[in-house]
C-alpha cells in the first residue's frame, strides 16, 4: 500500500527515527491514504470538483484505509480530509507494518522525558526496494509510474524529497516538481492527486503556522 511505502521512506534505518517532522509525515501519509481511496473508487470529487466524498461504501480489507473512510462522513475539501485522516495515522501505519514483520516499533524518550517511538527495520528488502525505485525516478534514471509518481508527489508536497533521496536539494525539488506535474496517471486520477497534493501542502503549512505561533 502507498501509505506503507511512504512510511518506509520516512524511516531512518540507522537510528529508527523519522526523516521529517511529525506533521509532515502525518500529512503525507494522509495524502497517500486518500490516493489509495481514490484509486480504489471509494472516494471521488463531487460534481463541482471541489470536495471529496464517499461514492462506494464497500468495506476495504486494509484496516488503515477502512478506518480512514469512516472519517469522511460528509463531502469535504482535500485539506479538511487530510486533517481528519492524519490523526493517529502514523501509529496505525507503523502498527500495520509491525504486524507484517517489516518493522519493530520500540518506545523511546525525547530529551529523556517525552514519549516517542523508534521504528527498527526488520525486513530490509522491503525498504530497499521502495527507496531504490523512488531514487531512480527522482534522479531521472527512469520515468515515473503510478506508485513512484504518487510517492514523489507526496514527498514534494511536504518538502521532504531531499530528506529521503540523496542529492542536491535544489535539483531534487526541481525534478520532483516536474514529476508531480507529469502524465504518469490517467486524467481523473491526475486531477484527484493534484487536489490531494494541494490539500497536503495546505495542511502542512497550516500546521507549521500554528506551531510557529
UniProtKB/TrEMBL annotation:
It comes from the Bacteria. It is a peripheral membrane protein. Keywords: Golgi apparatus, Lipid-binding, Membrane. It is found in: Golgi apparatus membrane. Signal peptide: none annotated. The keyword Membrane applies. InterPro entries: GPP34-like (IPR008628), GPP34-like_sf (IPR038261). This is GPP34 family phosphoprotein. It comes from Lentzea sokolovensis.
